[in-house]
Amino acid sequence: MLTFDAGTHIYRDDGRIVQSVTSLIRDGGLSGKSSAYYTPGSAERGTRVHQSCLDLDLGRKITLPVNEHGYLNSYKLWRDLARPVWTYMEQPAMSKRLNLAGTADRVGHDHGGIPLVLDFKTGGPQNWHGLQLALYDLIYDDIEPEQRRRVALHLRRDGKMCQSVEYSDRRTYDTAARLLSSRKTDYATDSKK
Asked: Which residue of 64, 67, 132, 153 is most buried, as measured by CB atoms within 10 A?
């Protein structure tokens, strides 16, 4: 059974630690300078915004500071236009074949029925975002890989329409395969990390 500890950002499958998409990218040296912009404050804001988007999609009460409502409005504008249908929302998943776990913000399909994997961002585009989405596509293995649109939604603080960045380069899956095959830590046998 897959569990996720949000405080430590650790996934476990029946008690055994499973490498995450985020740590795979970081350990592969592909997260670039994004750590320079990652602060405890930005992480907390991201958590609040993600939670408010989930609450919106589930019809629950929104508890978001007024000065951050723009991010939620930015998502609302996109959602009302795209009319997606979500299969998974913030639901951890694991590929036993790849021994990799992660949590895509949304998995489902657009109003035309095209499969979609989506991740919310409260900052600007980064080179590794396409790789992150390709890895999510691989671990949510209910359909064949490379069939989903891979989209990062860069939510805007000012509440205007978010920037939707779609990643379609097939070579991203080759990068994912190289990362997976060159892992330094064997998460299959390492349960003490």
From this structure: 132
